[in-house]
Write a structure and sequence with these properties.
Elements lengths: L18 H9 L3 E2 L1 E6 L5 E6 L2 E5 L4 E7 L5 H7 L1 E6 L5 H8 L11 E3 L5 E3 L4 E13 L2 E13 L5 E4 L2 E4 L4
Antiparallel strand pairs: 1-11, 2-3, 2-6, 4-5, 5-10, 6-9, 7-8, 9-10, 11-12
């Protein structure tokens, strides 16, 4: 559908499948670090670390997150229909690492409070954005979740950044 019109039909070059090269290229794109939180129907707190967070639209205000299909937090977000994006500060690398693990109850030892929307907000986060799920789209081995913004808080600070497979502060890049 979006083929390059300069190429004639049947002359499309083959696509590369070098996953290591793909990951290396992607690692050279600095991204902010966020923790996505949700609460299960059983009241259990869930969270995961990600850098795949995008401001999608101003009107209406929407964010986009991309969640691995294997994530235990994905079905919780789908069932609840709501999630919170917590943008981490440069001093919260430990929280990012903890929530990136596959262990259970990983959010319980992180200082947080429960918002008026019933979602965990990480103490000291640079900002938090509560969203209702607007739509979910397939995206390869991930699901793309578009969220309508319900509420926002902004505490400020220096963001935590992921670049070349490690965490950094903006001033260090």
């Amino acid at each position: 559908m979006y083929a390059n019109t300069a190429l004639s039909v049947g002359t499309r070059p083959s696509a590369t499948t070098d996953l290591a090269l793909y990951k290396d290229i992607a690692s050279h794109w600095p991204s902010g670090v966020a923790v996505i939180t949700a609460v299960g129907c059983d009241g259990k707190l869930h969270g995961l670390t990600m850098s795949a967070v995008i401001t999608l639209s101003l009107v209406p205000m929407q964010f986009l997150i991309s969640v691995d299909r294997r994530s235990v937090t994905l079905p919780v977000i789908k069932d609840l229909g709501r999630f919170c994006i917590n943008f981490l500060t440069s001093s919260q690398e430990g929280i990012a690492m903890q929530l990136a693990s596959k262990s259970g109850d990983k959010l319980n030892s992180v200082r947080h409070r429960i918002s008026q929307w019933g979602l965990p907000i990480i103490d000291g986060a640079l900002a938090s954005i509560t969203c209702d799920v607007h739509s979910i789209l397939p995206g390869g081995d991930h699901e793309i979740i578009i969220g309508d913004v319900l509420d926002m808080e902004h505490a400020g600070g220096e963001p935590l950044v992921y670049f070349k497979r490690s965490f950094h502060s903006v001033s260090a890049i």
